[in-house]
Amino acid sequence: MMPVIATGTRQLVALKKHTVMKTILIATDFSDAAHNASLYGVELAKAFNARVILFCAYQQVPVPITETPVLTLEEMSIRTQRQLEMEAKAINKRETVILETIHKEGTATSSILEAAKQNNADIIITGMKGSGKNLRKVFGSTASALAAKSTIPLIVVPEEAQFSRIDTIALANESDIEPDADVHLLDALREIAEIFQPKLYLVRIAQTRFREAFEILNRPFKLIRLMQSFDPVYESIEGRDIPKALNQFIESYHVNMLAMLAHKHSLPERWFIKSTTRSMVFESHIPLLILPDRPA
Fold first, then answer.
1. CA 26 to chain centre
2. What is the DSSP string of 241-291?
């Protein structure tokens, strides 16, 4: 018998044949934003009956050569493990998911990616500071770096976003997928859609009315075909400020998860093209699912 998952007032059947999301790695730095993302990750893990890895990277703070370090690496390791244990109890009070803690010395981005790879994580979850432009830039640096470098799907959870049933998903993309795109490109999105059965929109932003008319006539047929079992609705909307246009769409259509494909630009493109995905890491008010265009 297939397991039945209760979510709100409805019960959903988890399909056995799909095994994408077995392990969720939640990255934390013990901030309020990270704690909120951890709560979100545990709720998502319940829906998938997935195990959770709560991970923290730590580094020794550089000090002048004449001064003694505040904490040794061993002391930092012990303190980090204690903090992880406290956080694990706080986010999994009823022990509803299998949760283990891991900590590692090193820079945040590289350590998170290494831990995700070593533990066969199917998705990474991280938080985003919710207020203060400068604070968002500081706290968002790790999230944006993960979005640029990860070959594993990533969910960025804004500090103000609370977990709720995923009723509506918008998949926003600048163009159709490439002919040689990996067949597993949208696996994480399909897995979420199969569990929650949401309304699915495929969204393209046109910067002019002329471009909008062009987009309507040139639909992303490969994306539509990959998601056709979920009966996606195609929408092309006008807006020169893409993050603003997307957020207006999200509000108008009551979207509670935004999915985007993380295109890898060449170096010259990075100089001249502002990444829409990176912008939405900072500007989205709902969880952002980032799908790498070359999955691991």
1. 10
2. SHHHHHHHHHHHTT--EEEEEE----HHHHHH---HHHHHHHH-SS-EEEE
The token pair that represents 111 in the structure block: 């350590």
**Structure confidence at residue 179 (pLDDT):** 64
Non-local CB neighbours of 48 within 8 Å, separated by 6+ positions: 14, 21, 22, 24, 191, 195
Q: Is the pLDDT at 264 greater than 80, yes or no?
A: no
Q: Cα separation of 110 and 128, whole Å?
A: 18
CB distance 172 to 205 below 8 Å: yes
Helix axes 32-48, 187-196, angle to 10 degrees: 70
CA 267, 272, 277, 280 dihedral sign is positive
DSSP state, residue 166: -
User: How far is residue 125's CA from residue 182's CA, in Å, rounded to a whole number?
Assistant: 22
CB atoms within 10 A of CB 285: 15
In 29-98, the DSSP E strands lie at: 51-58
- Distance in angstroms between the alpha carbons of the first and the last residue of the chain: 31
| Domains identified in the chain and CATH numbers | 21-157 (3.40.50.620), 168-292 (3.40.50.620)
- Residue 189 scores a pLDDT above 90: yes
